[in-house]
Specification:
Blueprint lengths: L23 H15 L1 H4 L11 H4 L17 H18 L6 E2 L6 E2 L11 H6 L5 H25 L4 H12 L2 H5 L4 H21 L3 H17 L2 H20 L8 H31 L1 E3 L12 H7 L14 H10 L5 H18 L4 H4 L14 H25 L2 H23 L20 H23 L7 H17 L18 H7 L2 E4 L10 H4 L2 E2 L6 E3 L2 H7 L3 E2 L4 E2 L3 E2 L2 H4 L2 E6 L4 E2 H7 L11 E4 L2 E11 L4 E10 L7 E8 L5 E4 L3 E3 L4 H6 L1 E9 L9 E10 L4 E2 L4 E2 L5 E10 L11 E6 L5 E5 L6 E4 L1 E5 L2 H9 L8 E5 H4 L5 E3 L7 E7 L4 E8 L3 E8 L4 E5 L2 E3 L2 E3 L3 E6 L2 E9 L2 H20 L9
Length: 928
Amino acid sequence: MPVPADARERPFSCPLSLPIKCPDLLALSALVGIILAFFYKTVFLRQPISKISYLSVWDTLFSQQGCDVTRLVDPSGILLQIPFFYLVANLWRAGQLPLWNPYSGCGSPLAGDIESTVLSPVRLLFALSPAMQFYNLLLVFQVILAAVFTFALARELGLSRLASIFASLTFALCPYILFYLELLLGTSYCLFPLVFWLFVRLARKHSVANSFAAGAAAALSIVSGHPEAAFWGIIFSATLMSALTIAGIWQSFFLKDFLRALFLAGLSAFCLSAPVLLPFLEYLANSDCYKFGGGGSAYIPWQALAYSLIQPGFGGASAYPGVVAALMLPLAGFAADRRVRCLMIVAGLAFLITTQFGPLRWLFVHWPLSALITIYAAPVFLLLVSLIAGFGLEEFIKLPDQGGWRKWLSLATWAAVIVVAPVLLRTLKVPLGQFDYDAAVGHLTVSYSSCRWTAGLLAVLLTFLFLKLRFRLLREWILPVACIALGIVSQGLAGKDSLPVEPRFDYRAQEPLPFLQASGQRVLATGNHIFRPNTNVVFGIQDLRCHKSLFPRRYLNFMQAAGGQLDRFDQHFDGTFNSLLDLASVRYILSLLPVQGSKDLAQSCLGASRLSADGLAAAEGLRLQEALWRYDPENRAIQGKLCWRLSHSIKKKYSFCLVLLDGSKRTVWYGDQYPLCLESKDEAISGSLAREFAVPIPVGIAPGRELFLALEIFDWDRGSFVVPIYKGPDGKDIMTLLGSLKIRVADLSKTAHFKLLQEFPNHLRIYENTQALPQSYVVHKVRRAHSAEEALRLIRDPSFNPHKEVVLEEGDCKLADSEEVLCAQSGAQATELRRQGPSAVQLKVRTLSPGVAILTDTFYPGWQATLDGKGVPILSANYLYRAVRVPAGEHIIEYRYVPFSFWLGIMLAGCCATIWIGLRGGPEKMSR
């Protein structure tokens, strides 16, 4: 079968050739130079573009960094991406394999959490200099990778150098790509062109070398980025390879050769990514995730994606290729090239998947497709659109010499659509809000300013075309260079908020972080704006909370039982804790408010009511029936409870907050607003609402001073306070006084569950949990549980004493009775814990009687234990943790994390690489 004429290699002397016969290396140098110039403030002036500075607004610990402006942003880029950059880099620098994360929760697999990308080359580069300045440079480096690989892909498809540069910049500088650059998705998106390029090479020639190269690129995308994003990149690159092969672009189609090449590529991808893929699959089998519940997959409405092709409707997060690329799209349809047809077909499929068009939406509602987020396929569509625009640019340059009336009509019509469509939508008052798809992106809007500069850039571009057509004054290369320049300007204007210059930020180790780091104890912060989850891994501090989408099995159930409030990614705690935090070895609490144990809650409201017998009529349909509180001098806090009565017919939105005033009635402390609404079913039936509160007494207030506790009730509909009783110093009615107190010296002889250690100038407090169990200890009594649910119930039983007994599940303890007393008299005992790295723990145990040595680290497959050098089984203890039985005497227990899945993956990757090296000397072309 002869090779088609349109598949021949395009000569360098085509109309879009550079003025000299320079190699592709020179074109790549120019491409990299353009990107460096685009980010010159970051590269040369060291201005950060990372959104990490928003942490200073979200987190009280870093509030002194001074970032005053926040934008809509996915918090995972700050709470998941950057902290794990530091964690993995620090482990590599310490010469330790990043297999286990001992800092998040009670420990979790690190290599198995594929979003940690422990083998990513970008993470390895960060290990050279783990600092925010270098991290910002790595963001620019990712954009360069996207551009360089897109250039290689475009050249492989036959585009000229200038058209390839145009397509490369169109994709790499797309606002959508830049907006998500700081997420793991961004790393995946930047590697999409590499995967497509090597799969296109495989379509050109079905050889072993090309199959291995395509598989290696697919494996790199898996180990370096988000697994779902990598999935879509691999699927669509294989689809494009299939389309080019079946169309017979470069060689005759033989099904056997095609399937063999695809199989070898897939096998290589699996083997080379096995060191992280197999632990990830193991983690999936031993984890909980919000995606397991099904539901609906996220997608972009097709109207929003289609509109984004012509206007940046989502601002700096728009899937906008630029005004020049948008103008070139219809012209690509006139290219007599089957490669363009293949690109259009695959781009159409990517559009349908990304938007879940028509019946596809019904498919992606059902499990397991509901776990696939199709919005992650949007960059595939943008990459293909950029390549199609490159072919359209070639047709655009031919217009003065080879243009027909159809091309001119198509160009004029599409230019009119680009300019008029936004104005028409605004005039018709189309409800654009219904086309939103991501809360972090914002609302779809029509901006007249973007319409004006779009029209202006189109006018400039058409002026260049007119000069070329009418006067023949332009050289062959000036028009494409003008298109490249105008494309950069249009994307720069649209994406000015994608990666804007941000305030400088670094992780300053200010108090109490050095204290917590040196203590080696597990901590917990209350609320949602103190020591945000995962920030702890930067400092090597153990935090019971973590921010991610995949959690070790039972962890979420334990956190909820401990009083945590769960969402898809985080766990939040208020100021009241139960005994499960003692069981989790949480030694220190960070809080802006006083904390207390749940057992102390009933005793905290011992003061008399400060209201009249029938309460206080706060507003229409709202009555404060009772206000009980007491002063705790030891913890310098007021603990109390407000009992409300809400009418079922109430429609207004109210909230309340507590205020502390000094003797001059000036504010000493001002609390957060708490909404007044009937949340639970019982509350809705009775109309009664009880809310506990806690007010800290600032440490700087000396004993003997009189303070007043006041209440504010705010009407959000009216925008004002309601039922004021007290006039402030400025004469305004603002508050309701609940009572007064005098500061007195604390009774230090009292033993509190949570003891106030220190208060810092920003009112942040650190409490010590005096009843927290150590991270390793020995008990001598065993309770038996027949299931995980029973184990959780037993550790929550008030009669359970974790200092003396442990709950083991039936498969571990194998007892005939429900309880077993290993020794009635436990005698003296002691344990010494030493962490020898993230994947090794040593316990020195000394006990006078047999017992169970408990380690409050997560029970997870892959951990091995030895007792005095001999292997022993690890028991699942207290629902979440692990333990080992020990006889009387002095013993050394060693835990080591040796995941079989990881080392099996290493073996598969090594075998694959060895086979490939061995075959390099043999014939590359596979026989048919």
